[in-house]
Amino acid sequence: MRLGIEDSSFEEAYAPKTKRRKMTSYNHSTRGNPEGNSILQEDQPKLTAPPNSDNDSLNSSFGTVSSPPKKRKMFRNQKQLAKATQKYHSKKDTMYSDTDLSTLDQTDTPDSLSMISAINPVSDMSMQTTFSRMQRPMGRADVTMERAVQRARGQPDGAEKSFHRMASKGVQRYPTIEEVRESAEGVTDTSSNRSEGDSGTLMPPPAALQPMERRKSIRVKISRAASSAAGKLKGLKAKKNLNDSRTGVSAGKRRLEDSQAIETDESKKTKLKELPFKDRRKVRKMLKNNFNMIQRSKQIWDELRRHDVKEKRRSELCSELMTMVKGNMKELSFAHDTARVLQCLVQYGTPDKREEVFSELKDQMCVMAKSKYAKFIVKKFLVYGTKVHRNAVIKSFKGSVRKLIRHKEASDVVEFAYNEYAIAAQRLSLLEEFYGPSFMLFKTPDVKSLDQMLLVQPDKRDMILSNMKDALLPLIEKEVLKHTMVHRVFFEFFVYASDKMRTDMVESLRDCVIHMMHTRDGSRVAMYCFWYGTAKDRKVIIKSFKTHVVKICKEEHGHMVLLAMFDVVDDTKIVQKAVLEEMLKSLNEVATDQHGRKVLLYLLSPRDPHHFHPDIVRVLVEGDKNPHSKKDKAVRHRELLEFVSSQLLQYIVDNTRDMVLDNASMLLLLAILTHAIGDPSAAMKAMAKIAAEPFVAGSLDNMHIVEHSAGHMTLKRLIQNDRDRIQAGHTVLFSQVLLDTLTEGSLKSWAACNRGCFMLIFLLELDHPDITDRVITQLTGIRKALKKMTFKGAQILLQKLDALSGEYKL
User: Fold this and answer.
1) How far apart are CA 157 and CA 149, in angstroms?
2) How do residues 246-276 score in pLDDT, each as one tens digit?
3) What single DSSP character describes residue 597?
4) Secondary structure (DSSP) of 187-214
5) Would strands 46-47 and 65-66 be described as parallel, antiparallel, or unpaired?
6) What CA–CA distance (Å, rounded) separates 463 from 448?
7) How many Cβ atoms from other residues are within 10 Å of residue 695's Cβ?
8) What is the pTM of this model?
9) Contact indicator for 709, 701 with CB cutoff of 8 Å
């Protein structure tokens, strides 16, 4: 019966592929079949953890190893099949003849297929057979009988004995599953897990539990090696492209870096990392091209830049330096240290050497202007170069101005050239790129500016302004709007654009107006934004002034924007809250500045010719025709004046002496007393107290206000101002407050000096009955003293008294 089953299994194993069927629901054990392949083992044999293991995760950690399929032989007739069967059984009998597995511990791990068969016999297959029969597809062979035979067969005879003999001779064995698990968990004593009868030598556990790897075919290894080599080549190419993109890097330096990247091993990198930072930087510098030349040129530069170097020595150093750097200037101009060397050579070199440097670098001017360090060499040519050099530098910018003005580094160079060294024609050449292609197309030699172009060809206005708008919109950035070139173009656009185009541009520009107010053209642009902006635009602009109001008041051109704002903004509440409150908090700082006083004077008396030049008034008048202001101008002015009057009057009280004795503050003081809404009695009394101080003629240590050059002028203006106050119907007059404050005999002491006599004359010329009567009363008996005095004021005062002698008894 056994022989029949084996023959059947052999026939099935060597049957054609079309007759074999693969079982899908059978879980193979690690035990092999010594009698050959059968229907149960058509799948590839797999090596897994022993089935008696309680940890299934080990099977997944070790992985699965599958052997390649074996090539099956095909037999043409029964004779060849019988011969192959006899050869197979003879080979099987000799295989298990001397094997004894009786003493083998079942937990030990074998190292041959026969040992696997002895240690792990086929488990009970009855349940699996029944389950497989239920799931077996129709038409597959019935293998129930074969499984039952394999279960009853057990271990081959002699397998345990043979394995025990090998173990007794000291054959090394593999650790068991429990020992592997304990080794992975860190248990060091693995000998206690072995059985007492185990005399074999336990192999040391591996350093770390590694899953069994599948053997890779030669094709896979070749493909992976090829992909790795391709990756390295791609990395080297990328590095080379990066080095090529660096301006000024030589080919020798790139080759050196590539060779270092390939040849440097881990030991060299470790040694470089162990060095201090300064040493590492020095090593890297030494690997660069022209290292020795760079070091020597820096030494020369260090001596050449000193101010105490003699002219002869400086000439020698320049000659040596020129010899060293000639031919390498393009590379040296982009480094932070060698760029300074070339700057010094341009500054201190002779005209011939400066010409040599320029001839080598003239093709790189536009590129150098974009460099963080090379741009200073371009500036040196503008400062120390000849007229030809400057023209060449400015000409190199042509065609790239719109890009350069937006560049962080190049914008400084273009701005410097435009403001300091460009003539009118060169400025136009730099600006005409913003006018668009239409201007370039229709420009003639006679046309030198945009207004001339629009005057000659007015039909091209809309086309040119449309191109200007497209060119200006990308320039609305914080860093770009600080340049005067941009301010000029924006100003010309607002001058010639229609109201609709102006309003659209204001909407785009309103958040950045504050960055343009430090120049003349920029302040005019800001004024146009207030004039032609809507109420919302004006509100946004005013809010952007927050924390910058005092600075704007003190700027030469920025304070003009505030004057235009006072003229046209109807929402006086937001002006008071956002601008005036912040300004009044630093009132002393504003009032002591020449431009800040203009802002305060405009609040007190707008467009007063005593304080504002006609040209300024003419500029401000342009905003009166704006289409967005609806409130009456007088109402707007009174609302702002009421808000600041009380604090301005209090400022006089707190700073009376400084204001009275300062010529610049005198006009502000008079304007406050004249136009401020409120009672000025406190301010007038504070000034009268200073005038009432004891007077000593000719005292230089503590000069009285009457003799002071600015003080006597202040008193004169205040006394003469009372005439206007009398006509306006004011009841509080400074002259009356002054006479009330002065002590008896003070007016007689004033008559001892020339300026004091004129103060008395001004009081008498007011023609106010009360004031004139009080003055003449205090001057009784001084006519004899006045006759003895020779200065002009005494003579005029005596004549004035003689004229009044008929009316008053003197």
Assistant:
1) 16
2) 444 455 555 555 555 544 444 444 466 667 7
3) H
4) ----GGGS-TT--SEEPPPPSS--PPPP
5) antiparallel
6) 18
7) 20
8) 0.63
9) no
